[in-house]
UniProtKB/TrEMBL annotation:
Protein name according to UniProt: DNA primase large subunit PriL
UniProt KW 4Fe-4S keyword: yes
Residues reported in the UniProt entry to bind [4Fe-4S] cluster: C301, C412, C423, C429
GO terms (BP aspect): DNA replication, synthesis of primer
Gene source species: Methanobrevibacter curvatus
Assembly and oligomerization: Heterodimer of a small subunit (PriS) and a large subunit (PriL).
Lineage: Archaea, Methanobacteriati, Methanobacteriota, Methanomada group, Methanobacteria
HAMAP family per the UniProt record, alphabetical: DNA_primase_lrg_arc
InterPro entries in the record: DNA_primase_C, DNA_primase_lsu_PriL
Cofactor(s) named in the record: [4Fe-4S] cluster
Family indicated by similarity: Belongs to the eukaryotic-type primase large subunit family.
A GO-annotated cellular component: primosome complex
Keyword terms of this UniProt record: 4Fe-4S, DNA replication, Iron, Iron-sulfur, Metal-binding, Primosome
Length: 463
Protein backbone atom coordinates (compact mmCIF):
# COMPACT_ATOMS: atom_id res chain seq x y z
CA UNK A 1 0.00 0.00 0.00
CA UNK A 2 1.16 3.60 -0.70
CA UNK A 3 2.41 5.55 2.30
CA UNK A 4 0.10 8.26 3.53
CA UNK A 5 2.71 10.43 5.30
CA UNK A 6 3.34 12.63 2.25
CA UNK A 7 -0.40 13.15 1.88
CA UNK A 8 -1.14 14.42 5.40
CA UNK A 9 0.27 17.93 4.88
CA UNK A 10 -1.00 17.91 1.32
CA UNK A 11 -4.55 17.56 2.66
CA UNK A 12 -4.18 19.39 5.97
CA UNK A 13 -1.67 22.25 5.74
CA UNK A 14 -2.39 23.11 9.38
CA UNK A 15 -1.20 19.78 10.78
CA UNK A 16 1.75 19.84 13.19
CA UNK A 17 3.95 18.16 10.51
CA UNK A 18 3.02 20.91 8.08
CA UNK A 19 3.77 23.67 10.59
CA UNK A 20 7.19 22.16 11.25
CA UNK A 21 7.92 21.84 7.55
CA UNK A 22 6.86 25.46 7.11
CA UNK A 23 9.18 26.70 9.86
CA UNK A 24 12.12 24.86 8.31
CA UNK A 25 11.56 25.98 4.72
CA UNK A 26 9.88 29.37 4.51
CA UNK A 27 12.11 32.15 3.21
CA UNK A 28 10.24 35.43 3.07
CA UNK A 29 13.22 37.40 1.76
CA UNK A 30 13.37 35.31 -1.42
CA UNK A 31 9.69 34.70 -1.87
CA UNK A 32 9.56 35.98 -5.43
CA UNK A 33 12.89 34.52 -6.56
CA UNK A 34 12.85 31.61 -9.00
CA UNK A 35 13.04 28.37 -7.03
CA UNK A 36 14.95 25.75 -9.01
CA UNK A 37 13.69 22.79 -7.00
CA UNK A 38 10.04 23.80 -7.43
CA UNK A 39 10.48 24.53 -11.14
CA UNK A 40 12.12 21.12 -11.66
CA UNK A 41 9.26 19.36 -9.86
CA UNK A 42 6.63 21.24 -11.87
CA UNK A 43 8.43 20.54 -15.15
CA UNK A 44 8.59 16.89 -14.20
CA UNK A 45 4.94 16.44 -13.24
CA UNK A 46 3.12 19.26 -15.08
CA UNK A 47 0.97 18.58 -18.11
CA UNK A 48 -0.24 20.93 -20.84
CA UNK A 49 1.72 23.92 -19.53
CA UNK A 50 4.84 23.95 -21.62
CA UNK A 51 3.44 26.11 -24.40
CA UNK A 52 3.41 29.13 -22.11
CA UNK A 53 5.99 30.02 -19.50
CA UNK A 54 3.36 32.00 -17.54
CA UNK A 55 1.56 28.76 -16.73
CA UNK A 56 4.53 27.47 -14.70
CA UNK A 57 4.68 28.69 -11.08
CA UNK A 58 8.31 29.48 -10.31
CA UNK A 59 8.22 30.15 -6.58
CA UNK A 60 5.87 29.47 -3.65
CA UNK A 61 4.19 32.88 -4.05
CA UNK A 62 3.30 32.12 -7.66
CA UNK A 63 2.14 28.65 -6.66
CA UNK A 64 -0.25 30.31 -4.18
CA UNK A 65 -1.59 32.58 -6.90
CA UNK A 66 -2.07 29.55 -9.18
CA UNK A 67 -4.13 27.80 -6.49
CA UNK A 68 -6.58 30.71 -6.46
CA UNK A 69 -6.48 31.13 -10.23
CA UNK A 70 -7.28 27.44 -10.71
CA UNK A 71 -10.31 27.62 -8.44
CA UNK A 72 -11.59 30.87 -9.96
CA UNK A 73 -11.25 29.51 -13.48
CA UNK A 74 -12.76 26.16 -12.55
CA UNK A 75 -15.87 28.06 -11.49
CA UNK A 76 -15.98 30.59 -14.29
CA UNK A 77 -14.02 29.51 -17.34
CA UNK A 78 -15.76 26.96 -19.56
CA UNK A 79 -12.65 26.70 -21.72
CA UNK A 80 -10.41 25.64 -18.82
CA UNK A 81 -8.23 22.66 -19.66
CA UNK A 82 -8.05 20.61 -16.46
CA UNK A 83 -4.48 19.48 -17.27
CA UNK A 84 -3.17 22.99 -16.98
CA UNK A 85 -3.13 22.75 -13.18
CA UNK A 86 -2.48 19.01 -12.82
CA UNK A 87 0.57 19.67 -10.61
CA UNK A 88 -1.81 20.92 -7.89
CA UNK A 89 -3.04 17.35 -7.35
CA UNK A 90 0.42 15.78 -7.15
CA UNK A 91 1.87 15.33 -3.62
CA UNK A 92 5.38 15.86 -4.98
CA UNK A 93 4.71 19.57 -4.52
CA UNK A 94 3.69 19.01 -0.87
CA UNK A 95 6.42 21.15 0.71
CA UNK A 96 5.79 24.11 -1.61
CA UNK A 97 2.05 23.63 -1.42
CA UNK A 98 2.12 23.97 2.37
CA UNK A 99 4.30 27.07 2.14
CA UNK A 100 2.03 28.60 -0.50
CA UNK A 101 -1.08 27.88 1.60
CA UNK A 102 0.40 29.75 4.59
CA UNK A 103 1.63 32.62 2.41
CA UNK A 104 -1.85 32.98 0.94
CA UNK A 105 -3.44 32.90 4.39
CA UNK A 106 -1.07 35.64 5.65
CA UNK A 107 -1.51 37.82 2.58
CA UNK A 108 -5.30 37.39 2.47
CA UNK A 109 -5.54 37.91 6.24
CA UNK A 110 -3.56 41.12 5.86
CA UNK A 111 -5.30 42.46 2.78
CA UNK A 112 -8.97 41.53 3.09
CA UNK A 113 -11.74 41.50 5.68
CA UNK A 114 -12.69 38.21 7.27
CA UNK A 115 -16.13 38.33 5.61
CA UNK A 116 -14.81 39.37 2.22
CA UNK A 117 -15.40 37.38 -0.97
CA UNK A 118 -11.61 36.95 -1.23
CA UNK A 119 -11.53 35.10 2.11
CA UNK A 120 -14.50 33.03 0.96
CA UNK A 121 -12.72 32.24 -2.28
CA UNK A 122 -9.60 31.14 -0.40
CA UNK A 123 -11.58 28.85 1.93
CA UNK A 124 -13.64 27.38 -0.89
CA UNK A 125 -10.52 26.80 -2.98
CA UNK A 126 -8.89 24.91 -0.10
CA UNK A 127 -11.98 22.75 0.34
CA UNK A 128 -12.18 22.02 -3.37
CA UNK A 129 -8.47 21.20 -3.54
CA UNK A 130 -8.80 18.70 -0.69
CA UNK A 131 -11.79 17.12 -2.41
CA UNK A 132 -10.00 16.85 -5.74
CA UNK A 133 -6.81 15.49 -4.17
CA UNK A 134 -8.66 12.87 -2.15
CA UNK A 135 -10.51 11.71 -5.24
CA UNK A 136 -7.19 10.84 -6.85
CA UNK A 137 -5.92 8.32 -4.31
CA UNK A 138 -6.80 4.69 -3.81
CA UNK A 139 -9.83 3.93 -1.55
CA UNK A 140 -7.65 2.13 1.03
CA UNK A 141 -5.13 4.93 1.34
CA UNK A 142 -7.88 7.49 1.37
CA UNK A 143 -9.62 5.84 4.28
CA UNK A 144 -6.45 5.42 6.28
CA UNK A 145 -5.50 9.01 5.59
CA UNK A 146 -8.87 10.43 6.65
CA UNK A 147 -8.77 8.38 9.87
CA UNK A 148 -5.26 9.61 10.53
CA UNK A 149 -6.10 13.25 9.95
CA UNK A 150 -9.32 13.03 11.95
CA UNK A 151 -7.48 11.59 14.92
CA UNK A 152 -5.03 14.54 14.76
CA UNK A 153 -7.75 17.19 14.73
CA UNK A 154 -8.20 18.15 18.36
CA UNK A 155 -11.72 19.47 17.78
CA UNK A 156 -12.88 16.08 16.61
CA UNK A 157 -13.29 14.74 20.16
CA UNK A 158 -15.54 17.66 21.12
CA UNK A 159 -17.54 17.85 17.93
CA UNK A 160 -21.26 18.54 18.42
CA UNK A 161 -23.83 17.95 15.73
CA UNK A 162 -24.66 21.68 15.86
CA UNK A 163 -21.09 22.37 14.63
CA UNK A 164 -22.06 20.63 11.42
CA UNK A 165 -25.15 22.67 10.62
CA UNK A 166 -23.66 24.12 7.43
CA UNK A 167 -23.01 20.59 6.10
CA UNK A 168 -26.48 19.45 7.14
CA UNK A 169 -28.16 22.49 5.63
CA UNK A 170 -26.39 22.00 2.30
CA UNK A 171 -27.36 18.29 2.41
CA UNK A 172 -23.73 17.20 2.21
CA UNK A 173 -24.46 14.98 5.18
CA UNK A 174 -27.73 13.98 6.86
CA UNK A 175 -28.40 14.02 10.58
CA UNK A 176 -29.46 10.39 10.45
CA UNK A 177 -26.02 9.45 9.07
CA UNK A 178 -24.34 10.68 12.25
CA UNK A 179 -23.66 8.67 15.35
CA UNK A 180 -24.60 11.06 18.15
CA UNK A 181 -24.22 10.56 21.89
CA UNK A 182 -25.29 13.40 24.24
CA UNK A 183 -25.17 15.82 21.26
CA UNK A 184 -21.58 14.77 20.57
CA UNK A 185 -20.73 13.30 17.16
CA UNK A 186 -18.74 10.06 17.39
CA UNK A 187 -16.24 9.91 14.58
CA UNK A 188 -13.00 8.20 15.59
CA UNK A 189 -12.64 4.52 16.35
CA UNK A 190 -11.20 5.39 19.78
CA UNK A 191 -14.30 7.39 20.71
CA UNK A 192 -16.53 4.64 19.35
CA UNK A 193 -14.78 2.05 21.56
CA UNK A 194 -14.92 4.30 24.60
CA UNK A 195 -18.53 5.42 24.33
CA UNK A 196 -19.92 1.98 23.50
CA UNK A 197 -17.56 0.00 25.69
CA UNK A 198 -20.33 -1.76 27.59
CA UNK A 199 -22.05 -2.85 24.35
CA UNK A 200 -18.97 -4.12 22.54
CA UNK A 201 -16.62 -5.32 25.26
CA UNK A 202 -17.26 -8.97 24.44
CA UNK A 203 -16.92 -8.60 20.67
CA UNK A 204 -13.83 -9.71 18.79
CA UNK A 205 -11.62 -7.13 17.04
CA UNK A 206 -12.89 -7.92 13.55
CA UNK A 207 -16.48 -7.33 14.54
CA UNK A 208 -15.75 -4.04 16.34
CA UNK A 209 -13.92 -2.71 13.29
CA UNK A 210 -16.60 -3.87 10.88
CA UNK A 211 -19.46 -2.31 12.86
CA UNK A 212 -17.53 0.92 13.36
CA UNK A 213 -16.85 1.19 9.60
CA UNK A 214 -20.45 0.42 8.77
CA UNK A 215 -22.02 2.89 11.19
CA UNK A 216 -19.67 5.79 10.54
CA UNK A 217 -19.65 6.04 6.76
CA UNK A 218 -16.62 7.07 4.73
CA UNK A 219 -18.44 9.90 3.02
CA UNK A 220 -19.48 11.39 6.36
CA UNK A 221 -15.92 11.29 7.67
CA UNK A 222 -14.58 12.84 4.49
CA UNK A 223 -17.06 15.76 4.59
CA UNK A 224 -16.52 16.34 8.31
CA UNK A 225 -12.75 16.22 8.04
CA UNK A 226 -12.77 18.85 5.30
CA UNK A 227 -15.24 20.98 7.23
CA UNK A 228 -13.02 20.89 10.33
CA UNK A 229 -9.95 21.87 8.33
CA UNK A 230 -11.85 24.78 6.79
CA UNK A 231 -13.11 25.89 10.20
CA UNK A 232 -9.52 25.74 11.50
CA UNK A 233 -8.36 27.74 8.50
CA UNK A 234 -10.95 30.41 9.30
CA UNK A 235 -9.68 30.54 12.87
CA UNK A 236 -6.12 30.77 11.56
CA UNK A 237 -7.08 33.79 9.43
CA UNK A 238 -8.69 35.48 12.44
CA UNK A 239 -5.52 34.94 14.48
CA UNK A 240 -3.44 36.45 11.66
CA UNK A 241 -5.71 39.51 11.70
CA UNK A 242 -5.34 39.83 15.48
CA UNK A 243 -1.54 39.53 15.25
CA UNK A 244 -1.45 42.27 12.65
CA UNK A 245 -2.62 44.71 15.32
CA UNK A 246 0.61 44.19 17.21
CA UNK A 247 3.26 43.25 14.63
CA UNK A 248 4.22 44.70 11.27
CA UNK A 249 3.66 42.41 8.32
CA UNK A 250 6.64 41.45 6.12
CA UNK A 251 6.93 43.48 2.90
CA UNK A 252 6.82 40.27 0.78
CA UNK A 253 3.46 39.32 2.27
CA UNK A 254 2.17 42.83 1.57
CA UNK A 255 3.34 42.49 -2.02
CA UNK A 256 1.62 39.12 -2.33
CA UNK A 257 -1.61 40.68 -0.99
CA UNK A 258 -1.42 43.34 -3.73
CA UNK A 259 -0.77 40.67 -6.38
CA UNK A 260 -3.76 38.61 -5.22
CA UNK A 261 -6.00 41.66 -5.48
CA UNK A 262 -4.64 42.53 -8.91
CA UNK A 263 -5.03 38.97 -10.20
CA UNK A 264 -8.59 38.63 -8.90
CA UNK A 265 -9.53 41.97 -10.48
CA UNK A 266 -8.14 40.80 -13.80
CA UNK A 267 -9.91 37.43 -13.53
CA UNK A 268 -13.13 39.20 -12.57
CA UNK A 269 -12.85 41.45 -15.57
CA UNK A 270 -12.12 38.51 -17.81
CA UNK A 271 -14.84 36.17 -16.66
CA UNK A 272 -17.44 38.46 -15.04
CA UNK A 273 -21.08 38.07 -16.08
CA UNK A 274 -21.13 41.70 -17.16
CA UNK A 275 -18.41 40.93 -19.65
CA UNK A 276 -20.22 37.80 -20.64
CA UNK A 277 -23.36 39.83 -21.19
CA UNK A 278 -21.50 42.29 -23.34
CA UNK A 279 -19.88 39.56 -25.36
CA UNK A 280 -23.06 37.62 -25.92
CA UNK A 281 -25.38 40.62 -26.00
CA UNK A 282 -26.19 40.50 -29.68
CA UNK A 283 -23.39 42.87 -30.55
CA UNK A 284 -20.92 40.04 -30.94
CA UNK A 285 -18.26 41.87 -28.96
CA UNK A 286 -18.34 44.74 -31.45
CA UNK A 287 -18.39 47.23 -28.57
CA UNK A 288 -15.11 45.82 -27.33
CA UNK A 289 -13.35 46.99 -30.46
CA UNK A 290 -11.59 50.33 -30.40
CA UNK A 291 -13.86 53.01 -31.80
CA UNK A 292 -14.53 56.75 -31.37
CA UNK A 293 -14.86 57.66 -27.71
CA UNK A 294 -18.38 58.30 -26.42
CA UNK A 295 -18.25 60.78 -23.57
CA UNK A 296 -21.76 59.84 -22.39
CA UNK A 297 -20.41 56.37 -21.53
CA UNK A 298 -17.54 57.62 -19.34
CA UNK A 299 -17.80 56.64 -15.65
CA UNK A 300 -18.17 59.35 -12.97
CA UNK A 301 -14.47 59.16 -11.99
CA UNK A 302 -13.35 59.92 -15.57
CA UNK A 303 -15.83 62.76 -16.02
CA UNK A 304 -14.71 64.44 -12.81
CA UNK A 305 -11.05 64.11 -13.85
CA UNK A 306 -11.71 65.72 -17.23
CA UNK A 307 -13.78 68.50 -15.67
CA UNK A 308 -10.82 69.43 -13.48
CA UNK A 309 -9.17 67.83 -10.49
CA UNK A 310 -8.83 70.24 -7.63
CA UNK A 311 -7.16 68.30 -4.88
CA UNK A 312 -3.60 67.17 -4.12
CA UNK A 313 -3.67 64.03 -6.25
CA UNK A 314 -4.13 65.97 -9.47
CA UNK A 315 -0.94 64.52 -11.04
CA UNK A 316 -1.79 60.85 -10.45
CA UNK A 317 -5.39 61.40 -11.58
CA UNK A 318 -4.22 62.65 -14.97
CA UNK A 319 -0.92 60.82 -15.52
CA UNK A 320 -1.70 57.39 -14.05
CA UNK A 321 -5.45 57.10 -14.23
CA UNK A 322 -6.81 59.17 -17.12
CA UNK A 323 -3.95 58.52 -19.56
CA UNK A 324 -4.38 54.75 -19.41
CA UNK A 325 -8.18 54.89 -19.30
CA UNK A 326 -8.53 57.13 -22.37
CA UNK A 327 -5.87 55.34 -24.43
CA UNK A 328 -7.14 51.81 -23.71
CA UNK A 329 -10.84 52.74 -24.05
CA UNK A 330 -10.16 54.21 -27.46
CA UNK A 331 -7.72 51.64 -28.81
CA UNK A 332 -7.82 48.42 -26.82
CA UNK A 333 -10.90 48.16 -24.55
CA UNK A 334 -10.61 44.39 -24.24
CA UNK A 335 -7.19 44.66 -22.59
CA UNK A 336 -8.25 42.33 -19.76
CA UNK A 337 -9.71 39.79 -22.15
CA UNK A 338 -6.39 39.11 -23.87
CA UNK A 339 -3.37 37.79 -22.04
CA UNK A 340 -0.53 39.17 -24.12
CA UNK A 341 0.95 42.61 -23.73
CA UNK A 342 0.34 44.92 -26.69
CA UNK A 343 1.93 48.18 -27.79
CA UNK A 344 -0.18 51.22 -28.51
CA UNK A 345 0.98 51.26 -32.15
CA UNK A 346 -0.48 47.75 -32.62
CA UNK A 347 -3.82 49.59 -32.71
CA UNK A 348 -2.74 53.00 -33.96
CA UNK A 349 0.20 52.36 -36.31
CA UNK A 350 0.80 55.97 -37.38
CA UNK A 351 -0.31 57.49 -34.03
CA UNK A 352 -2.99 59.58 -35.77
CA UNK A 353 -5.71 58.60 -33.27
CA UNK A 354 -3.31 59.26 -30.39
CA UNK A 355 -2.57 62.79 -31.60
CA UNK A 356 -6.12 63.64 -32.76
CA UNK A 357 -8.33 61.97 -30.14
CA UNK A 358 -6.41 60.69 -27.10
CA UNK A 359 -3.85 63.36 -26.18
CA UNK A 360 -6.35 66.25 -26.62
CA UNK A 361 -8.62 64.79 -23.89
CA UNK A 362 -5.68 64.20 -21.52
CA UNK A 363 -4.28 67.69 -22.16
CA UNK A 364 -7.76 69.19 -21.71
CA UNK A 365 -7.98 67.55 -18.27
CA UNK A 366 -4.47 68.85 -17.47
CA UNK A 367 -5.57 72.36 -18.43
CA UNK A 368 -8.81 72.14 -16.41
CA UNK A 369 -6.97 71.01 -13.26
CA UNK A 370 -6.58 73.55 -10.48
CA UNK A 371 -3.88 74.77 -10.86
CA UNK A 372 -3.38 73.69 -14.54
CA UNK A 373 -0.98 70.74 -14.53
CA UNK A 374 1.62 71.81 -17.09
CA UNK A 375 1.80 75.37 -15.81
CA UNK A 376 3.56 74.45 -12.58
CA UNK A 377 4.80 70.97 -13.55
CA UNK A 378 5.61 70.84 -17.28
CA UNK A 379 7.64 67.65 -16.73
CA UNK A 380 4.36 65.73 -16.24
CA UNK A 381 3.98 65.77 -20.05
CA UNK A 382 6.99 63.45 -20.13
CA UNK A 383 5.29 61.14 -17.62
CA UNK A 384 2.17 60.99 -19.80
CA UNK A 385 4.32 60.00 -22.81
CA UNK A 386 5.99 57.39 -20.62
CA UNK A 387 2.67 55.86 -19.49
CA UNK A 388 1.65 55.49 -23.14
CA UNK A 389 4.78 53.35 -23.67
CA UNK A 390 7.00 55.90 -25.47
CA UNK A 391 9.77 56.47 -22.92
CA UNK A 392 10.72 59.61 -21.05
CA UNK A 393 10.22 62.20 -23.79
CA UNK A 394 8.15 65.30 -24.25
CA UNK A 395 6.44 64.04 -27.40
CA UNK A 396 4.94 60.68 -28.35
CA UNK A 397 7.14 59.35 -31.17
CA UNK A 398 7.16 55.91 -32.74
CA UNK A 399 10.93 55.45 -32.55
CA UNK A 400 10.73 55.58 -28.73
CA UNK A 401 7.97 53.01 -28.37
CA UNK A 402 8.83 50.17 -26.00
CA UNK A 403 11.23 52.23 -23.87
CA UNK A 404 8.50 52.14 -21.23
CA UNK A 405 5.39 49.97 -20.89
CA UNK A 406 1.88 51.03 -21.89
CA UNK A 407 0.38 51.35 -18.42
CA UNK A 408 -2.82 49.30 -17.97
CA UNK A 409 -6.02 50.88 -16.57
CA UNK A 410 -6.39 51.16 -12.79
CA UNK A 411 -9.04 49.09 -11.03
CA UNK A 412 -11.87 50.66 -9.03
CA UNK A 413 -10.31 49.32 -5.82
CA UNK A 414 -7.04 51.11 -6.56
CA UNK A 415 -8.85 54.33 -7.45
CA UNK A 416 -10.87 54.14 -4.25
CA UNK A 417 -7.68 53.61 -2.29
CA UNK A 418 -5.40 56.19 -3.92
CA UNK A 419 -7.72 58.67 -5.66
CA UNK A 420 -10.81 58.36 -3.53
CA UNK A 421 -12.03 61.91 -4.26
CA UNK A 422 -12.63 60.89 -7.90
CA UNK A 423 -14.96 58.01 -7.16
CA UNK A 424 -18.65 58.92 -7.02
CA UNK A 425 -20.25 55.56 -7.84
CA UNK A 426 -23.56 55.28 -9.64
CA UNK A 427 -25.80 52.25 -10.30
CA UNK A 428 -23.56 50.72 -12.98
CA UNK A 429 -20.52 50.91 -10.68
CA UNK A 430 -22.04 48.17 -8.54
CA UNK A 431 -21.61 45.68 -11.40
CA UNK A 432 -18.00 46.38 -12.36
CA UNK A 433 -14.46 46.33 -10.98
CA UNK A 434 -12.72 48.61 -13.44
CA UNK A 435 -13.74 51.91 -15.08
CA UNK A 436 -12.93 50.44 -18.47
CA UNK A 437 -15.58 47.76 -17.93
CA UNK A 438 -18.00 50.52 -16.92
CA UNK A 439 -17.27 52.24 -20.22
CA UNK A 440 -17.75 49.09 -22.35
CA UNK A 441 -20.95 48.19 -20.53
CA UNK A 442 -22.48 51.68 -20.68
CA UNK A 443 -21.54 51.98 -24.35
CA UNK A 444 -23.32 48.71 -24.99
CA UNK A 445 -26.40 49.94 -23.08
CA UNK A 446 -26.42 53.21 -25.04
CA UNK A 447 -26.10 51.35 -28.33
CA UNK A 448 -28.79 48.86 -27.34
CA UNK A 449 -31.19 51.61 -26.26
CA UNK A 450 -30.31 53.63 -29.36
CA UNK A 451 -31.12 50.62 -31.53
CA UNK A 452 -34.41 49.96 -29.78
CA UNK A 453 -35.32 53.68 -29.94
CA UNK A 454 -34.68 53.79 -33.66
CA UNK A 455 -36.71 50.58 -34.12
CA UNK A 456 -39.58 52.14 -32.11
CA UNK A 457 -39.37 55.30 -34.23
CA UNK A 458 -39.53 53.17 -37.39
CA UNK A 459 -42.56 51.31 -36.02
CA UNK A 460 -44.28 54.57 -35.08
CA UNK A 461 -43.69 55.97 -38.56
CA UNK A 462 -45.32 52.91 -40.14
CA UNK A 463 -48.47 53.23 -37.98
S1 LIG B 1 -16.78 52.65 -8.85
FE1 LIG B 1 -15.13 52.57 -10.32
S2 LIG B 1 -16.03 53.29 -12.23
FE2 LIG B 1 -17.41 53.89 -10.61
S3 LIG B 1 -16.79 55.98 -10.12
FE3 LIG B 1 -15.72 54.62 -8.70
S4 LIG B 1 -13.76 54.21 -9.66
FE4 LIG B 1 -15.10 55.06 -11.24
Amino acid sequence: MESNSKWIGFINPLSSESQELLRENIDLENLFENNKELIDIILNIGEGIFDNDEKIPKNPAELGLKRLEWFFREKNDKQLKINEYSYLYNPQIEKYDIISFHLLAQAIGYKFNINSREVKLFLESQNRLMEERLSRISPELREELINNILSQLSDVTNLKWTDLLSLIETKKIFLEDLLIKNSKVILTEEDFREYYYEDIKNWDERRIKMVYEKIIGKQVKDEIMRQLIITNTEEYLKKIKEKLNIIDIHHSIKKLGELIEEMLNILNEKYSTVYGEILSGGLNGENLKGEKLIKDAFPPCVLSTIEGVKSGNRNDAIVLFLTSFISYSRLHPNVFKLDQHMNLSDFDPNLKITYDEILPIIYEAAENAVPPLFKDQPQEKINITSKLGFGMHNEVELNHEGETKWYTPMSCDKIKMHLSNLCHPDKICKKIGNPITYYSYKKWLLQRDGNSNSKNNEANKKK
